[in-house]
Amino acid sequence: MTTKSIKRGTKKTVGSSSTPLNKAELKAAIVKHLHCSLGTDENKANNHAWWKATCASVQEHVLEGLRKTQKSHYLNDTRAVHYFSAEFLMGRLTSNNLHNLGLFEQTEKALNELGVNLTDIMEEEQDMALGNGGLGRLAACFIDSLATLDLPAVGYGLHYEHGLFRQEIKNGEQIERPDSWRDYGNPWEICRPESIQDIPLFGYVETKYGENGRVSKEWHPGHIVKGLPWDIPVVGYGGKTVNVLRLWQSQASDYFNWDVFNAGGYVDAQKENVQAETISKVLYPNDETEAGKELRLIQQYFFSACSLKDIIRRYKRAHGDDWSRFSEQVVIQLNDTHPAVAIPELMRILIDRAELDWDYAWSICSKTFAYTNHTLLPEALEKWPARMFEKILPRHLEIIYEINHRFMDQVEAVWPGNNAIKQKLSIIEEGAEKMVRMGNLSVIGSFAVNGVAEIHSALVKKDLFPEFNHMWPDKLTNVTNGITPRRWLKACNPALSQLIDGKIGNDWPLHLHKLQGLAEFADDAKFQKQFMKIKHDNKTQLAKEVFTLTGVEIDPNAIFDVQIKRLHEYKRQHLNLLHIMALYRRLLENPQYDIHPRVFLFGAKAAPGYKLAKDIIYAINKVAEKINNDPRVNHKLKVVFLPNYRVSLAEKMIPAADISEQISTAGKEASGTGNMKLSLNGALTVGTLDGANIEIAEEVGDENIFIFGLTVDEVETLDRKGYNPFDYYDNNRELKAVLDWLDSDYFTPGKPGALSSLKRSMLEGGDPYKVLADFVSYSDAQALADKAYKDSAKWAKMAILNTARMGKFTSDRSIKDYVERIWKLVPCEVE
Ligand code: Z16
């Protein structure tokens, strides 16, 4: 066995010497693909064709790596993690693959000699936006790290035809347009018709009585749909291990509605096909609220069932019908509760198909699954009406009842006669409508449950699942999130990466703690100048992009203050907006008001049904319009809302940011990951003591971050006392003036009240996220940030120390934590 234990900080060099493709070979391959795959030539090809030919040339090489990796995993019969996630927010793949293969510079040169610019042609790639935000991007960073660390892993998810909607802004309002990322084909994915799975749905359950007195169940499904897998190779940094991300597309099955077809109902049969193909049509755009839609549950079951069948097929190839080693070979990580239906699905397979008895089946099942929780917000916790469940998955509901029944006996043993606790812990919520609680099912069916930052995990134990924590004190744990430094520094910020290489060597993308080595230059005037020159260049580049996208001119000498994340009340973009309005007022009242010029940049999509979130986008755009066109202030203040925020736009904004806005109400942001990306690129955080901000502050030091606002404990105390936003409104003149301003037609001429919903939510609405309570503290922190920026040497030092001290937040560290605490995997080196 070519196995080794996980090494922290070992060799593995990345560079051109080890890669089998040199510049001449690359040129030849690209030209060959222009001719043979794309049917064009060097003179006729446009950027799109050049991009595709380049991908195809590299893909040949990637597929070799994939084959070797799969062979090696098979021969070593490795234990593997299966990362089940309804979302993988991959973004673009080309730059990442080139960097991870060590081919970026050669490809750049090869194309140059062909008269083509790599950066330009990479703009042809559509983002793979198969995710909403942090949860989906986390999955993408994790599979990058898994491959980089040579760990056997498969990502499983859905091959949505349409990813997260494309956002347009019309007259300040968000418009949703379909995302069609595959319109001109995706050169990185491979269709695998040889691995199609059949998935049953609907129907009824028959109870059968065997001769030996054995009672068994048979599910007679009403429909069968096909799952067709598409594989995306996932290249680890260094290019050795190439794992796969396997995404399932739904199709009508061949024997689907044969009767209708034979009866001459060809067109009707087509209608049924359309329904089957609807399953993987579109990603639900809600990030922190549950839509409760039937199709969504079908999506969840569809990809979970396809993935389990795939895993079992592979297991049986090595172990036949011997189930005793299943949980030694297979660990399944549930990324939130979206794939939790995999738990009763595995039970169904083991009991109804493999005919194992319940206890044995359960012992396998409950050693196989682990569950990651990403939120405490009650509206995000998944619940399905039992009636809906029964209609779609009748056998699974029976199994869930049985799991619950046995679990209730365990609860009875711990808290005899305590019905209140039973009601709280039950998988089934009794009420006007019976509901299936997917969080409770996930905790009961998993051997490990983790939160995503220290504070979040502490709150999961204390507030969300305290009784479960009492019953199984070792089950609940923490794994703090991380980000891949390959995409989020090396690839997106090449100038800074080169500067770092020159100072500390080039193996920091694998060993991010080495960035520590930059700290000794934090006071070095020359290094400060170099560091800030790169920031300035990145800002100049972003300014060009901003002008192209919005027509707004911004000055790279201004502070670039960035808030990029989904639009949600708890993330408090409206707190940022109130502060911008306060600055505007101060400047109008006192034209000498001394602040360094600042550009506030926003990027955010609102869930289409989330009215107030859309109102906040509208308000940001209307305030922006007014300020940007007001000659009294627009040399000091600009506000830009960049439309269609997505991974590829983040890659342009993050390297250009001076200030990172991480201003959620304490206790509400589970972790955050944008906070890590921005700090890694030398932006200073203005943030609350929430999620991973707390751990970022611990790493960078209190003097290198601007912390403000209520703590989790203070929020709790305030709630207990009874929070009244009017206390703040009535006692702060500036805050009152700014809120009242929203009621006027100043920002929406001729349309008074167009922004009033914001004010109402923060007053009559009770201000559920305590914007008013944190306003003064936030405004003070912003004043400190302004003051710090005016001392450019001080600012440079702080920025450098942010980059230098982000080592902890590499997703490689997160993955090592998962491996040691939960997955117990062993790396498997490839060739
Ligand atoms: C999501 O992106 C997150 C939580 C959730 O319930 C649903 C979605 Cl789509 C985010 C958290 O809000 C964020 O704090 C965290 O960093 C991220 O998941 C990854 O854990």
UniProtKB/TrEMBL annotation:
The keyword Glycosyltransferase applies. One of its GO terms (molecular function) is glycogen phosphorylase activity. It holds the Pfam family Phosphorylase. It catalyses: [(1->4)-alpha-D-glucosyl](n) + phosphate = [(1->4)-alpha-D-glucosyl](n-1) + alpha-D-glucose 1-phosphate. The keyword Glycosyltransferase applies. Gene3D superfamilies: Glycogen Phosphorylase B (3.40.50.2000). The modification N6-(pyridoxal phosphate)lysine is found at residue 677. SUPFAM superfamilies: UDP-Glycosyltransferase/glycogen phosphorylase. Residues 1-20 are annotated as: Disordered. Its cofactor is pyridoxal 5'-phosphate. Residues 1-11 have a biased composition (Basic residues). Its EC number is 2.4.1.1. Keywords: Carbohydrate metabolism, Glycogen metabolism, Glycosyltransferase, Pyridoxal phosphate, Transferase. One of its GO terms (biological process) is glycogen catabolic process. GO terms for cellular component: cytoplasm. Belongs to the glycogen phosphorylase family. Phosphorylase is an important allosteric enzyme in carbohydrate metabolism. Enzymes from different sources differ in their regulatory mechanisms and in their natural substrates. However, all known phosphorylases share catalytic and structural properties. Allosteric enzyme that catalyzes the rate-limiting step in glycogen catabolism, the phosphorolytic cleavage of glycogen to produce glucose-1-phosphate, and plays a central role in maintaining cellular and organismal glucose homeostasis. This is Alpha-1,4 glucan phosphorylase. It comes from Paraglaciecola polaris LMG 21857.
